[in-house]
Write a structure and sequence with these properties.
There is one protein chain. The chain is of the alpha/beta class. The chain has a domain of 110 residues: 3-Layer(aba) Sandwich (Cytidine Deaminase, domain 2). The chain contains six helices and seven strands, in the order H-E-E-H-E-E-H-H-E-H-E-H-E. Strand 6, helix 6 and strand 7 form a beta-alpha-beta unit. It is globular, with a radius of gyration of 17 Å. The termini are far apart. This is dCMP deaminase family protein.
């Protein structure tokens, strides 16, 4: 009898992050985060409205519009972006529901590269590494620079395939 291939630790924990993301009720993007110390799972979180408050699937998204400089546009052009402010990001929930002592020297696996705000919070949380799957081009350069300044490992899992039925198909931005 042939023995099944065993998943490596990165794939194992990223699979868990994607499964956690299925708890999200956000119609725009499901994001999951997992806190790991060594090979021990210490916490999970996903994006969503605060507890006891109607979420986006019940009350609709709270969309705000912002104008930002166009990426790579030397002409100074602006781009209109929309984002939902009803949702607490998965990384923020992970920090709210785990203890600092557990985060010291740990790794966060997150389905999506953290936005600038979440990256700032993670940089100050005691973790030593962030591993993600989906890129967030809007904030990539400044987040990568922050991680380098803080001496934190920051990497994308190349070639990773999320488990079936765990991704929102419309792909809207956070």
């Amino acid at each position: 009898m042939a023995q099944a291939l065993r998943k490596d630790w990165d794939t194992y924990f990223m699979d868990i992050a994607f499964m956690v993301s299925t708890r999200s009720r956000c119609p725009r993007r499901h994001v999951g985060a997992v806190l790991v110390q060594g090979k021990k799972l210490l916490g999970t979180a996903y994006n969503g409205a605060p507890m006891g408050v109607p979420d986006c699937s019940e009350a609709g998204c709270m969309i705000v519009e912002e104008y930002e400089p166009a990426a790579g546009d030397g002409a100074g052009g602006m781009v209109k972006k929309q984002r939902c402010i009803r949702t607490i990001h998965a990384e923020q929930n992970l920090l709210l529901f785990t203890d600092r002592i557990d985060r010291e020297g740990s790794t966060v696996y997150v389905t999506d590269q953290p936005c600038w705000t979440c990256a700032n919070m993670l940089a100050n949380s005691g973790i030593q590494e962030i591993v993600y799957h989906r890129a967030y081009p809007k904030d990539y350069e400044k987040v990568e620079a922050l991680m380098k300044q803080r001496g934190l490992l920051f990497r994308r899992i190349e070639g990773y395939q999320p488990p079936a039925d765990t991704e929102v198909q419309d792909g809207s931005a956070r």
